[in-house]
Write a structure and sequence with these properties.
heterotrimer, A alpha/beta, B alpha+beta, C alpha/beta, A: alpha/beta, TIM Barrel, two-stranded antiparallel ribbon, B: Aldehyde Ferredoxin Oxidoreductase,  A, domain 1, Aldehyde Ferredoxin Oxidoreductase Protein, subunit A, domain 3, six-stranded mixed beta sheet, four-stranded mixed beta sheet, 26 helices, 17 strands, about 15% strand
């Protein structure tokens, strides 16, 4: 890894404990607005000590003041869009999975981002989707290589083919694929202590826990963030990616607790 | 009372008519002060106005002027300078010879901005300035005394707080390379000491209680603090000069092929490292000393083995002295150089002129133009430090063959030519207008050549010190091989230096500060308003044109603005500047054009009107 | 300014005050392995402890020392994209004869290295005007690439060369600053023009672009260094870029603490020099072996008290004549003058320790003058002049160029 990539990665991975807490704030592109997700909420949450916030291009510009100065969360730009998170409660629930890369790594650099993120799904009904996800991810990773930008890949098993029995195997497969494509950091749903340990061992890059708002696949295990995070860290995990459901001003103290849970102290 | 009193000036010019010991105090006119400031400018103005043209410089008709400047005696950095202004007996041109130390301050505090001394005293005399009054005292008891002895004796006689400027035995003899000395500093060049000797004035002692006051003390303190700060924060004035004195540059000059060696035959000296600043610091220097109010302390004290008059310390030596008595003569022995320098200081002669005279003798000797008999059987080969020392002693004392050389290289070469009939004698006498050349070979730095040729007092490096940029890499450098742009550079520097020489500060302070700081100091001290640094530069231009007018009136023209044959037609034999000569012609042409002078080098009417000199 | 430039520049200029403390350590590329940058990693490890906002390196060193910049709170990496020979004077080797510049990197390359901004020179004053045109066009090239990739461009506009004179220097700094801004600079690094008035012209010329003052040669006086920064900030400067003053210091961390105190904590020079608790009782210490006999101490003593250059009024004494050595006598507050005074007109100030003269009680008998073992109390006219330690910051100490006088705290 070259110097630029290392330096940018170090902006959201703590150099002492090598862990990170990141907030997902790119939901608007995929789902529309959430309750209380205004800039003031983000500003308050930024002060809790979280390491990074994922935004889309439009909000990178609008919310840039949150990222100013060194004592602020790092900006991560979301490269892609998907309808995968539009569950039954959404006015337009997903009928068929769509996943597109809409922003470029070059763009991320222009916005002053410290990293980019993209999803990698496994368990598609149609194998062609898996292939095109892999292709798109690899292309993004190549750009990251030449532009020295770290990439966080959020690996999510989806659909009916993923069961409780094959959950860890599916997750391990997809994690390894993402790393081989070029991911610098992974975010994965919790698969139990042994499962997470297995993912960490297979990936050999920092692995964060993804707190999913909803069940994405048939076999997705239950996850209690406060109980399971310390276990995950003991199993070699490196932190958390918090979903949009955390974005409300009143959640700031809770987030601060989670930050302390990950970074200690 | 002059309107300038309390505004950095004493407000008085003292005219002393020596034969009748008559003195008359004149008010210093504010208008004149604003046009010419002080020091060089004021001296030039007084000299030009009051001296008849074509006077014999050693006759009673010549005027001897001592001039201080507005910043003399203040807390401005290096605020101590005074100068001696006269018609030079060495060159026949205008002469301003500057000096540091406490005398200028003493003179001003005694109540006088300038002294204008005319006539000749009946006997060797001592001029005493005290509390606004002047008196003349017989000084036969000082006859033949060295400069140091003279000062000690005068202080014993009059009081320890008197500041003394004097001439040594060489000045009493009217040797043309004699200077005026004070507390081991010298107004060395051009023979000011001979003029003083011709007037039978041995010394001037000054003491006063009228300390210098300024127009706006608060603004002045602020301006002085800022100027001092710039000096403290500049590499040259805060490190190179305090650590290694002016000799800090010797090795670099040598590396550039510009260190005149063996009478300007070569530009590099094989023993340069023996006489570098680091060497002196490690081996001979025991102390840094600074002139009054000087934050730089470039001066050093050397401990020597067997000095003259039983002295085991000597002042310096500085770069020019080290070079002239060293590399120029092919000598790399520090003790010998220091002892020779001490002789010059005690007997009161200029080390540059002395060194050049010795080097000239050496080249003549090696070329067979002088034989053993001619030189009192000294083995005057280059590199012979014993012979150099002996010859310097003879020149200092005016004994034996010293008599041939105590009037400088020009006359020595002319005498020799007359005696031997060989025109070769004249070819390597390294002087311009009679003043011996300093330690930079202009074949390695074209701009210096133009500077020597157009200096108002003959071969001098200080009027236009282009070496800083051409050889030392300061200010982004200036290509030393090029002639383009040198005319403009030389003119700028001559004008700036004229301001410095008329303000009361030292050249070295000006390495760190600019005309902006000088202006701030002058305005706060005097209440004058110059409006801009450019306007202050114009004052310098005015002064430099005035000294040119003086020289023109004395008969100098463009044919005199030249260089020795060796530099114009003998390509440098070795080193980085090998094969080069000075391409003076085009530079000089452009110089006159930019100066607003005609092809004869005479300032045009337009230029004089522009400068208020018509 | 686009988002990228804004976010990156905000990690150099602290958003809370818009100011920056930057350390330049790129000298190696232009002056060679000078002291301080010879062992660059060691030096920078100490520098980083002092928490500068950014560090300027050459591209090669940026790559080798990138680990020093890891972590959110680490200093921002600035990369120099150009090179020049112009600062190499006789202090180094092969002094410059003609100023040249060259390009050694590019904004894109710097971005790859992880830089938050790039730095380039812009010179005004070339003998050959074509050089000026070429230099400006190089800077413009950098500016346009920086605009494309949203990387801030910091320009260092400096007047130098044979056409810079002692009369036009300050004016040219302002002109060069403006040219740099018009060419696309997002911030400037300029030399101090010597006084706040002329520097405010530079700030005005920069039309709102933040200006950092550069340090140049290593100052030997802490007060000088800090004072210069304060003066620039008073007229709108936004901080400092110091190189040798930090990397060649005995204690780079301490220097940076000073700089942060001045720039970000807005402390005064006095507060920083006093180091927290200003000691009340001080004494003067003399080191006569350093004295060169210049008498500036005595001159400023008289001048700062009475506004005139009457050395005999100085409350300290320098004795000696060529060839030295020189003797220094300062008031040690020994109190013998106090004892000798029959009218109790002299007393020791209880808070600060200096000798205080009560004019009303004094009958000018002069017994204090006789009693002083050092001869530093003076009777002049109708005034007694005795050292008052200048209210805690003795002028003689600050004005002495040799460090022959110092302040001793008990």
């Amino acid at each position: 890894m070259g110097t630029g990539r290392e330096l940018r990665k170090s902006e959201f991975i703590d150099q002492v404990d090598k862990r990170s807490v990141i907030l997902q704030a790119s939901h608007g592109l995929m789902l529309g607005p959430s309750e209380g997700d205004d800039i003031e909420a983000l500003r308050t949450i930024a002060k809790t000590g979280i390491d990074g916030i994922i935004v889309t291009r439009g909000f990178a510009n609008r919310y840039s003041s949150i990222f100013r100065g060194r004592n602020s969360p790092a900006m991560l730009l979301s490269l892609d869009w998907t309808n995968a998170f539009r569950g039954r409660d959404h006015p337009l629930p997903m009928a068929r999975l769509e996943h597109m890369f809409l922003s470029s790594v070059e763009e991320a650099l222009s916005l002053g981002a410290s990293g980019v993120t993209a999803y990698f799904f496994i368990g598609h009904e149609d194998d062609e989707h898996e292939a095109s996800n892999m292709e798109a991810l690899s292309a993004a990773c190549r750009d990251c290589d030449s532009l020295e930008m770290p990439i966080l890949v959020q690996v999510i098993p989806i659909g009916e083919r993923v069961t409780a029995e094959n959950y860890v195997d599916s997750l391990a497969l997809a994690s390894r694929m993402a790393v081989e494509a070029g991911a610098d950091i992974l975010a994965v749903p919790y698969a139990g202590k042994d499962g997470h340990s297995r993912i960490v061992t297979a990936a050999k890059v920092p692995v964060l826990l993804l707190d999913l708002e909803m069940k994405m696949s048939k076999g997705q295990p239950e996850f209690n963030i406060e109980l399971d995070t310390p276990d995950a860290i003991r199993a070699g995990g490196s932190g958390l990616v918090l979903g949009r459901h955390y974005i409300e001003r009143k959640n700031a103290p809770y987030i601060e607790r989670l930050v302390k849970l990950v970074h200690g102290g | 009372m002059s309107t300038l009193r309390g505004r950095a000036y004493a407000g008085n010019v003292l005219r002393i008519y020596l034969p009748e010991a008559k003195t008359r105090c004149e008010e210093l006119d504010e208008k004149e002060a604003k046009l010419f400031l002080g020091g060089k400018g004021l001296g030039a103005y007084i000299l030009y106005k009051n001296l008849e043209p074509h006077v014999d410089p050693l006759s009673e008709k010549n005027l001897l002027i001592f001039a201080t400047s507005p910043l003399t005696g203040t807390i401005a950095p290096t605020g101590n300078r005074f100068c001696v202004v006269t018609k030079s007996p060495l060159t026949g041109t205008f002469l301003d010879s500057h000096c540091g130390g406490p005398f200028g301050i003493g003179m001003k505090e005694a109540g006088f901005d300038a002294l204008v001394i005319s006539g000749e005293a009946d006997e060797l005399s001592l001029l005493i300035l005290e509390d606004g009054k002047a008196s003349l005292m017989g000084a036969k008891d000082l006859e033949g005394m060295t400069t140091l002895e003279t000062e000690e004796r005068v202080r014993k006689k009059l009081g320890d707080s008197f500041k003394v400027a004097c001439i040594g035995p060489a000045g009493e003899r009217k040797a043309l390379i004699a200077g005026v000395f004070s507390e081991m500093r010298a107004a060395g060049r051009g023979g000011a000491g001979a003029v003083m000797g011709s007037k039978r004035l041995k010394a001037i002692a000054a003491r006063g209680g009228e300390s210098v006051k300024v127009h706006d003390p608060k603004a002045f303190e602020r301006a002085a603090w800022r100027a001092h700060r710039m000096v403290r924060m500049h590499e040259v004035t805060a490190r190179h000069l305090p650590m290694y004195g002016s000799d800090n540059i010797l090795e670099t000059i040598n590396e550039s092929g510009a260190l005149p060696t063996r009478n300007f035959q070569e530009g590099t000296f094989e023993s340069a490292s023996e006489i570098s600043g680091t060497e002196w610091r490690n081996m001979l220097w025991i102390r840094d000393t600074g002139c009054s109010r000087c934050p730089i302390s470039c001066a050093k004290v050397s401990k020597i083995e067997k000095g003259q008059n039983g002295m085991s310390f000597m002042e310096g030596p500085d770069y020019e002295s080290i070079w002239a008595l060293g590399a120029l003569c092919g000598i790399g022995e520090k003790e010998a150089i220091a002892r020779a320098n001490l002789l010059c200081d005690l007997y009161g002669i200029d080390t540059i002129s002395t060194g050049n005279s010795v080097a000239y003798a050496m080249e003549c000797y090696e070329k067979g133009l002088l034989n053993g008999d001619d030189v009192d059987n000294l083995d005057m080969r280059f590199g012979n430090s014993l012979a150099m020392l002996e010859l310097v002693e003879k020149i200092s004392k005016g004994s034996g063959v010293g008599k041939l050389f105590e009037n400088g290289v020009k006359r020595a070469s002319e005498n020799l030519y007359a005696k031997k009939g060989d025109v070769a004698c004249l070819r390597f006498a390294m002087h311009v207008k009679g003043m011996e050349l300093p330690g930079y070979d202009p074949r390695a730095a074209q701009g210096m050549g133009l500077g020597y040729a157009t200096s108002d007092r003959g071969g001098c490096h200080l009027r236009a010190y282009t070496a800083g940029q051409e050889l030392l890499g300061y200010g982004g450098g200036s290509n030393p091989r090029r002639t383009e742009g040198k005319a403009r550079l030389v003119i700028e520097k001559q004008n700036e230096k004229a301001v410095v020489d008329s303000s009361g500060i030292c050249f070295y302070a000006f390495f760190a500060i600019t005309l902006k700081e000088v202006r701030a100091l002058l305005e706060a001290a005097t209440g004058f308003e110059f409006g801009s640094s450019k306007n202050l530069e114009k004052v310098g231009e005015r002064i430099y044109n005035l000294t040119r007018l003086f020289n023109v009136r004395e008969g100098f023209r463009s044919s005199d603005d030249t260089l020795p044959e060796r530099l114009l037609s003998e390509p440098m034999s070795s080193g980085p500047a090998k094969g080069l000569v000075v391409n003076l012609g085009p530079m000089l042409k452009e110089y006159y054009q930019l100066r607003g002078w005609d092809e004869e080098g005479v300032p045009t009417k337009e230029k004089l009107v522009e400068l208020g000199l018509a | 300014m686009g988002t990228g430039k804004d976010v990156r520049l905000s990690k150099v200029f602290d958003p809370s005050d818009g100011r920056a403390v930057v350390v330049a350590a790129d000298h190696g590329m232009m002056l060679g392995p000078i002291q301080g940058v010879l062992e660059l990693e060691k030096t920078l490890q100490k520098v980083v402890e002092g928490k500068p906002d950014a560090i300027l390196l050459s591209p090669g060193q940026a790559e080798k020392l990138s680990h020093l910049f890891k972590g959110r709170m680490a200093p921002s990496l600035l990369v120099r994209v150009d090179w020049t020979n112009t600062f190499r004077d006789r202090t180094y080797t092969l002094p410059v004869r003609e100023t040249f510049f060259g390009t050694v990197s590019s904004p894109r390359h710097a971005l790859k290295l992880g830089a938050r901004a790039v730095v380039t020179y812009l010179f005004l004053g070339y003998e050959d005007e074509e050089m000026e045109a070429r230099h400006l066009s190089l800077v413009s090239k950098y500016a346009s690439e920086c605009a494309r990739v949203e990387l801030p461009l910091i320009v260092e506009p400096i007047p130098l060369g044979p056409r810079v004179t002692k009369a036009n220097n300050a004016e040219l700094v302002a002109i060069a600053a403006r040219v740099a801004v018009e060419a696309g600079a997002d911030a400037l690094k300029v030399p101090y023009t010597g006084d706040p008035e002329s520097f405010s012209n530079v700030v005005r010329a920069a039309a709102g672009v933040p200006i950092l003052v550069l340090g140049g040669y290593r100052a030997l006086s802490r007060r000088d260094l800090l004072e210069v920064i304060v003066e620039t900030m008073e007229v709108g400067g936004s901080g400092v870029v110091f190189g040798r003053n930090v990397v060649q210091a005995q204690d780079p961390k301490r220097v940076l603490e000073d700089l942060r105190a001045i720039v970000h904590e807005k402390k005064s020079v006095r507060e920083v020099l006093a180091g927290g608790e200003a000691p009340k009782k001080i004494k003067l210490g003399a080191q006569p072996e350093r004295c060169s006999g210049c008498l500036l101490c005595t001159a400023i003593c008289s001048f700062s008290h009475e506004g005139d250059h009457n050395l005999s009024a100085g409350r300290l004494k320098v004795e000696g004549r060529w060839p030295g050595p020189f003797k220094l006598a300062v008031c040690t507050q020994c109190g013998r003058c106090v004892e000798a005074c029959p009218k109790k007109a002299l007393s020791v100030n209880p808070a600060f320790g200096f000798i205080f003269w009560n004019e009303e009680r004094c009958d000018l008998c002069g017994r204090c003058v006789e009693a002083c073992p050092f001869g530093v109390i003076k009777l002049q006219g109708s005034k007694i002049r005795v050292c008052d330690l200048c209210g805690g910051t003795p002028e003689c100490v600050d004005w002495c160029p040799r460090g022959a006088l110092r302040v001793i705290t008990s």
